[in-house]
Design a protein that fits this description.
single chain, mainly alpha, Helicase, Ruva Protein, domain 3, 5 domains, 5-stranded parallel sheet
Length: 579
């Protein structure tokens, strides 16, 4: 691009009313302005109050990859967002609920609240929902011809959506107005104006690009259309700077050669495929147990006293419930049932076979997911800050956002199923490697030894429960919760287990140590106080101390109940009063 052409483009930026017919759609090409004029005419016709026997449908096709276009197009047509139904990729249950309703609410197509219903992202529906939508539109069209309909419909879809859907809509609605926004590669003369519009939002302008860089951008094919341009500009202007910028052709080439500027979405599953994926996870889980039985004469996932996790309700219409149940199941299996076996085989995976620690990172994320979903986090705590950052990074990889929106929960379910499948496959592969290794006998012996010095938490809970039962601390006023005691003593229990020498009496010595610690750290208190003596009518004085000493001796000798001690207190108070 020569300097004269470049200066002419910069001068044209002053005529904003010409090159920006609609916010978000910049350019001077005939294709763009023709589309805008036609859309405004159609939108004006839709906004008029329809007669009872009239009907209208509009198929609005936009370039894929930039959802912000929907907002700009609806605003340009003066159409209210009240009747807009935003659909999302991979969110089949969410989309079905918004369109067709459920037991709790009615759908947008069953009881339209406005005269114009806008369905944004029709091509994101799976085949089943697409066919259901087409049947619904067909019935609505028939009713409209008979004078029973009183609203219009606007369908927004991407030009790279399913070809079958485009054909079906053309056949179903032959009289519909079909408007297609031309792609950026078909109107390259608009690239400088689009570039200036996006740069202005970042505090820049077209003046920041030299003629060589501008020509390079006009020659680019723009597979991601306006979405790619938007991401590219934000990368160029990040981080913000107060100094003047000047982007050269080399800088543009560097950014274009980086990660794809077009927005991408993680591959997701249809909810109908979840049970099948779950079956594969369950098969891998059972195979891990069988392989471990062959190696260490015990299952890999040893439940102990922990209840086996219930399967998620796969046919529920609430994705949030399914996700919570799946997180809970994963925590039970990976954190509670698999310890310490999982930690041992992952150490072998890294130290002996020299493989990466991706499986360990997955385990950590599953652990933190459960804490994030089911516990109250203290936002000043460094530990909880790590939990949030770990989970937010997992969500970002799963659905693109650190905090998923309701329509992204189904994508998170699919991601979690994939992670579980990959993790169990990794565990199974490690077990196979151990079984086929020349040092199998040594590895298995070391595994068994580490199991004896690295108990899972539920085994400590069992031991503490037995000790509390023998001490009579399971019920009554001095009762203790075994889980709470174990949690408080867990690090000390693990350390004590490590320092105990091997022997048949190791567990008994640990039990003795627990009895002593409970007696020191959780002393029993007599279930009666001086407050009770005061209620019995005893006046404050030296008698308080004497009676409390007698009651303490009685409690220490016989472990008397509160009722027995109160009866003895009455007798002692009466004797003091009479005396």
């Amino acid at each position: 691009m020569d300097l004269a052409t470049y200066r002419e483009l910069v001068d044209r930026l002053a005529e904003e009313e010409r090159w920006l017919p609609v916010p978000g759609l910049a350019g001077l090409s005939l294709g763009l302005h023709g589309f805008v004029d036609r859309w405004r005419g159609v939108a004006e016709r839709l906004s008029r109050s329809p007669e009872s026997a009239s009907q209208a449908a509009v198929i609005l096709v936009r370039p894929g990859g930039f959802d912000r276009l929907s907002e700009d197009l609806l605003a340009a047509g003066g159409i209210s967002r009240t009747g807009r139904v935003k659909l999302y990729p991979g969110a089949n249950l969410y989309n079905a609920d918004r369109l067709f309703g459920s037991a709790a609410r009615s759908g947008a197509l069953e009881s339209p609240a406005t005269q114009v219903v806008v369905l944004d992202g029709v091509d994101y529906l799976d085949q089943t929902l697409s066919q259901r939508l087409l049947r619904h539109i067909s019935a609505w069209w028939l009713h409209a011809e008979q004078g029973a309909a009183s609203f219009h419909i606007v369908l927004l879809l991407n030009d790279d959506g399913p070809h079958e859907l485009h054909l079906s809509l053309r056949e179903l609605l032959p009289a519909a107005d079909r408007l297609q926004l031309p792609r950026l590669r078909d109107r390259r003369e608009d690239v400088p104006f689009c570039l200036h519009y996006e740069a202005r939002a970042c505090g820049g302008s077209l003046n920041d690009f030299d003629p060589g860089s501008l020509q390079r951008l006009m020659d680019h094919s723009w597979p991601g259309d306006l979405g790619e341009l938007n991401v590219l500009v934000r990368r160029l202007y990040h981080p913000p700077s107060e100094r003047a910028r000047r982007f050269t052709k080399d800088k543009i080439n560097e950014v274009l050669r980086g990660p794809s500027s077009a927005r991408s979405t993680r591959v997701v599953m249809n909810p109908m495929d979840w049970p099948l994926q779950w079956l594969e996870v369950d098969v891998l889980y059972k195979h891990c147990n069988r392989r471990a039985n062959a190696l260490i004469d015990g299952p890999f996932f040893a439940m102990g006293t922990t209840e086996s996790a219930a399967d998620p309700s796969w046919y529920s219409q609430c994705p949030e419930l399914i996700f919570l149940q799946l997180v809970s199941w994963a925590y039970r299996k990976i954190v509670e049932e698999a310890e310490p076996n999982l930690r041992i085989v992952l150490d072998v995976h890294e130290q002996v076979f020299h493989r990466d620690d991706q499986a360990r990172q997955t385990c950590q994320a599953l652990n933190k997911l459960r804490t994030y979903e089911q516990h109250r986090l203290e936002y000043g705590s460094a530990h909880d800050a790590f939990t949030r950052s770990t989970v937010e990074e997992w969500f970002r990889k799963a659905c693109g956002d650190p905090v998923p929106e309701p329509w992204q929960v189904e994508t998170c379910i699919a991601a979690l199923l994939c992670d579980l499948k990959n993790l169990f496959s990794c565990i199974l592969e490690i077990l196979r490697r151990i079984e086929n290794d020349d040092l199998r006998e040594i590895l298995v012996e070391q595994w068994k030894q580490r199991r004896e010095t690295t108990w899972p938490k539920h085994r400590f809970v069992t031991l503490v429960t037995e000790v509390l039962r023998l001490l009579g601390r399971v019920e009554g006023p001095n009762a203790l919760a075994p889980e709470a005691v174990t949690e408080k003593l867990l690090s000390r229990l693990q350390e004590q287990l490590r320092i105990l020498v091997d022997g048949s009496d190791k567990e008994q010595r640990l039990r003795t140590w627990v009895e002593r610690v409970i007696a020191d750290d959780f002393p029993e208190t007599m279930p009666i106080s001086t407050r009770d003596l005061q209620l019995l009518g005893l006046q404050p004085g030296p008698a308080y101390k004497q009676i409390m000493e007698l009651l303490q001796a009685e409690y220490d000798n016989k472990k008397s109940s509160r009722e027995s001690l109160l009866e003895l207190s009455k007798q002692l108070v009466q004797a003091r009063t009479i005396g």
